[in-house]
């Protein structure tokens, strides 16, 4: 096999990976940052980094776990650089806070049920906002991306026990937020 | 995979999800998915092109200001260099003029004659100034020569 052919195959493989995993990476970054433009930028950076290192990816973990690990590091760097300015900014903007709740599918529910559902989503969003960066990452990977604990552990570089501990604290906060509003 | 399927795993992690909490988490997940899908499928070409144009404008602006600064600096350096050359030419011209003036003086016959007369006068004054005590000796020596 010639060098050019190998490169073409690698490019095709990578293209397939982008098509398959881009929506999930974008969704995780969007729920983490709650900023569409920023999430898009970080998603692009994530795949750019992945492309540069695609040759050294050995497939020891799944491509998704590997990409998620890159995305987590990117958003971690972003928070470090911005020193949580974004969250401070959005705290003053009620419209931004309820962004996710605006997109709740209505389904077959009544208007009242929809309003209650919106309220619950907003409460969960508020609780997530108050979590530490690590708790938030673990919470979103578990309850938005529906990843297994072992996957989360691999993606975050934490052991499963630590993941459980973060998840437990995050849930306690959500539970308190939902309980406090009733 | 639904949240109902995950409840056992979460319980294994030491968490028991109440139906209400389970419902709230499920709704939160659905809303984030819907929001993400909507954001992902929104048209982005115009924004991207606009941004690219802005980047190009910024780059062109920097390049132009770089050229202007470089031009200004090199013009200043060139002007300074020209002034130095002019100064050197002026000094050299003054030297040449002085040299020529001296040479012209040397060539003037009247001035040369005056100098020679002055020297002759000095010589005769010196010869006339021989001390009187030596005069007889001088005459004897003159007589010896005639004999």
3D architecture notes:
The complex is a heterodimer of chains A (182) and B (147). Chain A is mainly α and 182 residues long. Chain A is 76% helix and 0% strand. In chain A, helix 1 packs across helix 3 and helix 8 packs across helix 9. In chain A, 35% of the residues are buried. About 4% of the residues of chain A have low confidence. Chain B is an all-alpha fold. Chain B has two domains: 43 residues; 69 residues. In chain B, 86% of the residues lie in helices and 0% in strands. Chain B is built from five helices and no strands. Chain B starts with a helix and ends with a helix.
Ordered list of secondary-structure elements with their pairings:
The complex is a heterodimer of chains A (182) and B (147).
Chain A: H1 3-33, H2 36-52, H3 63-82, H4 85-91, H5 94-97, H6 111-129, H7 133-143, H8 149-156, H9 160-181
Helix pairs in contact in A: 1-2, 1-3, 2-3, 3-8, 6-9, 7-9, 8-9
Chain B: H1 3-12, H2 19-40, H3 45-107, H4 109-128, H5 135-146
Short description:
The complex is a heterodimer of chains A (182) and B (147). Chain A is an all-alpha fold. Chain A has 9 helices and no strands.
Largest sheet of chain A: none
Provide the residue-averaged pLDDT of chain A. 83
Q: List the chains of the largest interface with their residue counts.
A: A-B, 34 and 31 residues
What is the rounded distance between the termini of chain B? 157 Å
Largest sheet of chain B: none
Q: Provide the low-confidence segments of chain B as ranges.
A: 1-9
Q: What's the helix count of chain A?
A: 9
Please state the CA-atom Rg of chain B, rounded to the nearest Å: 56 Å
Regions with little confidence, pLDDT below 50 for 5+ residues of chain A: 91-98
- Rough outline of chain A: globular
Structural class of chain B: mainly alpha
Structure characteristics:
heterodimer; A: 182 residues; mainly alpha; 9 helices; globular; B: 147 residues; 2 domains; 5 helices; 86% helix
């Amino acid at each position: 096999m010639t060098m050019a052919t190998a490169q073409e195959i690698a490019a095709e493989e990578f293209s397939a990976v982008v098509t398959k995993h881009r929506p999930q990476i974008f969704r995780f970054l969007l729920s983490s940052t709650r900023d569409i433009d920023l999430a898009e930028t970080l998603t692009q950076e994530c795949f750019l980094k992945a492309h540069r290192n695609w040759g050294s990816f050995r497939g020891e973990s799944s491509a998704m776990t590997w990409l998620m690990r890159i995305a987590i590091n990117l958003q971690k760097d972003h928070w470090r650089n911005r020193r949580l300015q974004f969250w401070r900014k959005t705290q003053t903007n009620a419209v931004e806070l309820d962004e996710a709740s605006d997109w709740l599918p209505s389904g077959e529910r009544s208007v009242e049920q929809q309003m209650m559902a919106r309220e619950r989503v907003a409460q969960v969003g508020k609780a997530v906002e108050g979590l530490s960066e690590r708790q938030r990452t673990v919470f979103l990977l578990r309850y938005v991306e529906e990843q297994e604990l072992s996957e989360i552990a691999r993606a975050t570089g934490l052991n499963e026990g630590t993941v459980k501990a973060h998840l437990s604290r995050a849930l306690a906060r959500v539970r308190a937020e939902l309980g406090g509003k009733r | 995979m639904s949240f109902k399927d995950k409840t056992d795993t979460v319980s294994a992690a030491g968490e028991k999800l109440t139906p209400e909490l389970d419902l709230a988490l499920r709704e939160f997940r659905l809303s984030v998915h819907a929001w993400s899908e909507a954001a992902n499928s929104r048209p982005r070409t115009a924004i991207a092109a606009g941004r690219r144009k802005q980047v190009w404008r910024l780059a062109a602006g920097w390049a132009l200001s770089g050229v202007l600064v470089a031009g200004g600096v090199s013009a200043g350096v060139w002007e300074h260099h020209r002034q130095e050359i002019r100064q050197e030419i002026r000094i050299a011209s003054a030297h040449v003029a002085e040299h020529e003036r001296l040479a012209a003086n040397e060539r003037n016959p009247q001035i040369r004659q005056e100098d020679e007369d002055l020297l002759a006068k000095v010589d005769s004054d010196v010869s006339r100034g021989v001390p009187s005590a030596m005069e007889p000796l001088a005459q004897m020596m003159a007589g010896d020569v005639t004999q």
